[in-house]
Amino acid sequence: MSTEIILEKDIRTLRRESAAAFQQRMERQGTFVVRLLSSPGSGKTTLLEQTARRLGDEYRVGVLVGDIATERDAERLAPLAATAQITTGGACHLELPLVEKILPQLGEEAFDFLFIEDVGNLVCPASHDLGEHFRVLVLSTTEGDDKPGKYPKAFRTSQAVVINKIDLLPYVPFSVEQAIADAKDVQGELVFFPVCALRGEGVDAWCDSLVERRRQMLTKNGGKE
User: Fold this and answer.
1) Does residue 121 sit in helix, strand or coil?
2) pLDDT-based confidence at 2, cuts 50/70/90?
């Protein structure tokens, strides 16, 4: 005799509710959560280094770094911001319970900006909500301009694309115009930031956008700087 078990809420609903609760908790303390997705080697960590340098003098910045193995990226960022490593041990993306478990390692002080650097992967992370306010895909010119068509969900679920390594455009077969057009076909509201994170080109505009988006979050929730 078989027994049928009916779950009142499926796991996807529970995950959405947990992500919404986490986001609301961050909003109450004035923390704007930015999550970075990308392929391995796109320059996420270099972008975060430049971002932390620019925001760190005026804002409290925290970073959670996700990797399958090693703490190398976290070690690079530690001198610039409160940083904690999340080592998945093989999992191809971060999960919210793990984020919430590691977050206290940054300390008890609330942050103005919390950056979550997900595991380098354009597939798995796109399907999981970590409660971020701003999901950003980092696309490097060395990867080729065909990624929006090959990995549409990663672009569809993001709100912005940082096109990194623009200094290499003369040397690689990458069309910024084609990449933007294909990405907009997938998600028409995407915002684009062409940068060379290594040299800091374009990073000021990126940081200005983050500050403005946090201001809008605070205004929406009745907060202030």
Assistant:
1) coil
2) low
